[in-house]
Specification:
Helices cover 39% and strands 20% of the residues. By secondary structure, it is of the alpha/beta class. The protein has a single domain, classed as 3-Layer(aba) Sandwich (Rossmann fold). It has a five-stranded parallel beta sheet with strand order 2-1-3-6-7, sandwiched between helices. Strands 4-5 form a two-stranded antiparallel ribbon. Bound molecules: flavin mononucleotide (FMN).
Length: 241
């Protein structure tokens, strides 16, 4: 009998790991998921040895379902196969930190998690997860430095594409622009952390996150002009002494 406990695997792609802005968002989000009854496992890609895909199609043409590279992805593959929800957590790094990109490449439609059959669906080429892969939802948690939400565009597109390519639901994006300012504004940080917990809880209990909670997480903490000035100040000091 299939067990009914919802299993979540979260992958944090920030090179700053526990000290990262991404971790500051992911912590309360996962806490909310656990509170709603899910079991959660968290991995930091920087801490794992995940080598780049070597592109030889071994997992596709030679031994479907097996990756020839012997590294820590071999630990992650069974965990990912058994997860219901995959949380991709990453900072925006024009567009991604290299370690996160390696991880994503090793998940691509050529990877061992996915049945090596291509199909045409709604005008684009799709693969699908092998039937022994449980993942039904993919969710994005992301931190960025600049002011506007538009900065998440490419990262959001990547997460949506991964879900679309393998035919699983993209369950939404938790986006926090100028995330570092949460560390200075304790009052707002508490409100945002509560909203993050709520979003995680909702995702498990209702299967989706509400727009107003996501908006609360993304709310501006400073004016656009003031933020630009803050970023420009150190350089201006060097330039003008
Ligand atoms: C190499 C690099 C590229 C970045 N590119 C962007 C960017 O395109 N847009 C943006 O809003 N922030 C950008 N940032 C800022 C980070 O997204 C931001 O500082 C984030 O909060 C870092 O999260 P972390 O602590 O989880 O690593 C970049 C930072 C670095 C180091």
């Amino acid at each position: 009998m299939r067990d009914t406990l919802i299993k979540v695997v979260a992958v944090n792609g920030s090179v700053r790991m526990e000290k990262s802005d991404t971790a500051m968002l992911l912590g309360p989000f996962l806490e909310g998921m656990e509170k709603a009854g899910a079991s959660v496992e968290l991995f930091y890609v920087k801490r794992l040895n995940i080598r780049p895909c070597i592109g030889d199609f071994y997992c596709w043409n030679t031994k479907p379902g097996e990756c020839i590279i012997s590294d820590d992805m071999q630990i992650l593959y069974p965990k990912l196969r058994g997860a219901d929800i995959l949380v991709l957590a990453t900072p925006v790094y024009i567009p991604l930190p290299g370690e996160m990109q390696n991880f994503i490449n090793r998940l691509c439609p050529l990877s061992p998690l996915i049945e090596p059959i291509l199909e045409k669906h709604e005008g684009s080429t799709r693969a699908r997860f092998h039937e022994n892969v449980r993942i039904r939802k993919i969710v994005l948690v992301s931190a960025s430095g600049w002011w506007e939400l538009g900065n998440f565009g490419i990262v959001l597109h990547i997460a949506e594409e991964i879900a679309k390519k393998v035919g699983v639901e993209f369950a939404g994006a938790v986006l926090r622009p100028h995330a570092f300012l949460m560390r200075e504004n304790k009052e707002k940080a508490e409100i945002i952390k509560d909203a993050l917990k709520h979003a995680g809880f909702q995702l498990i209990k209702d299967g989706k996150m509400s727009e107003d909670i996501l908006d609360k997480i993304s709310q501006p903490l400073i004016s656009e002009e003031d933020l630009r000035q803050r970023y420009n100040e150190p350089y201006m000091k060097i330039k003008h002494g």
